Amino acid sequence: MERRALRKSLQSAFILVAMTCAAATAFAQSGPPTNLHAKVTNGAVQLSWNAPQLGVATRYVVYRAMAPATNTSPSTLSFMKIDATSRTSFTDKSAAKGSIYVYYVTAVGKNGQESSRSNTVTVNLPLAGGS
Questions:
Q1: Which tens digit of pLDDT belongs to each residue from 27-78?
Q2: What are phi and psi of 51, to 5 degrees?
Q3: Contact of 102 with 65, CB cutoff 8 Å
């Protein structure tokens, strides 16, 4: 009888440890940032987004691609990492006037893994002005 009770106790402890590890892993990972927006001010592209709804982000990685036309699908573009930040905003001062850019952001969780992409935004940077 004692063996049976001990086995049940060990099984319960194992399940509790497995559930705790799974919860810790889920917490260490981060969901994607949401609600990415962009605006052009003084010739620079200002991006802002909301923190992930799942997990905790330790930093965000900003990606950019140059689009040949406004109706280009983001899935066909070559995105490059342009910066990382701990804030939920970023200003791209290196964007060239007269160009069309597409941006997305990922979140990096406590485990160091990047999330999936946020939504994309397309910005048409005018040759002059832009405020």
A1: 457 889 999 999 999 889 999 999 998 888 999 999 999 988 766 677 778 9
A2: -65, 155
A3: yes
* Amino acid code (one letter) for 42: N
Domains of the chain: 28-124 (2.60.40.10)
List, for residues 93-121, the tens digit of each pLDDT value: 999 999 999 999 999 998 899 999 999 99
Q: Report the 10 Å Cβ neighbour count for 101.
A: 20
CB atoms within 10 A of CB 61: 19
* Burial track 77-95 (b if 16+ CB lie within 10 A, e otherwise): bebeebeeeeebebebeeb
Please tell me the total number of residues recorded for the chain in this structure.
Answer: 131
pTM confidence score: 0.75
DSSP state of 98: T
